[in-house]
Design a protein that fits this description.
The protein is built from eight helices and no strands. It is mostly helical. The protein has one domain.
Length: 209
């Protein structure tokens, strides 16, 4: 059956793993994300006593990210659905038959993988925001644990509040920034996919004589 290999990925995680292993990541996204990670780490290490203010910032980022992320993800899925359904099937067939470099993937898989990769990033970001909203809000489970460890010397030595809060601030702040970069990449991928479809339509397959 033609195209049966397109069904071998059974989950978003499998698609994302193939993207990481086979597709070349954006150097700008990697460099910018590592730069933000570095600055947030320096800020937390030099000023660890500001962890209480970072709790407020984490909660506000979680609230903002949950609303912003769900809205953006909805628009991304809608745009992707419109693009994939309005594109010509004969172009998809030609792109499927043409391999992309040495990756073993077809041009069709590469184009669609780049879209799904952004979906996975935003889905993970929204899950992180939801967990912060559920467990790290005022009166939440995380706050109760930190208050309990503050009066228990043994547990307080293991669960130092400023260490855990500063670490969460670094990781969640970096993830929030990376999600914005993923949106930038999605815009470019949309443009590139449209241009690819136009170029392929300009160059129809040669008929056998």
């Amino acid at each position: 059956m033609i195209g049966i290999e397109l069904l071998q990925e059974k989950s978003l995680w499998q698609i994302y793993c193939r993207c990481l292993c086979l597709l070349t990541p954006s150097r700008f996204n990697i460099f910018a994300t590592l730069l933000i990670l570095f600055f947030l780490s320096v800020d937390s290490i030099v000023f660890p006593e500001n962890y209480k203010m970072r709790v407020i910032l984490i909660r506000s980022l979680g609230d903002l990210g949950l609303g912003y992320g769900s809205t953006v993800l909805g628009f991304l899925i809608a745009g992707f659905t419109i693009f994939s359904t309005l594109s010509r099937s004969d172009l998809f067939l030609r792109m499927h038959k043409t391999k992309y470099g040495k990756t073993g993937l077809s041009y069709l898989q590469v184009n669609f993988f780049t879209f799904v990769e952004v979906f996975v990033v935003y889905a993970f970001f929204m899950v992180a925001c939801l967990l912060i909203k559920l467990f790290a809000g005022e009166g939440g489970l995380v706050g109760a644990i930190l208050r309990y460890t503050a009066v228990n010397p043994l547990l307080g030595f293991i669960c130092i509040p400023n260490v855990w809060i500063n670490t969460t601030f670094i990781l969640f702040g970096t993830l929030s920034f990376y999600s914005l970069l993923a949106l930038k990449s999605f815009i470019y991928n949309t443009y590139h996919s449209v241009m690819t479809s136009i170029v392929w339509s300009f160059n129809p397959p040669q008929q056998d004589k």
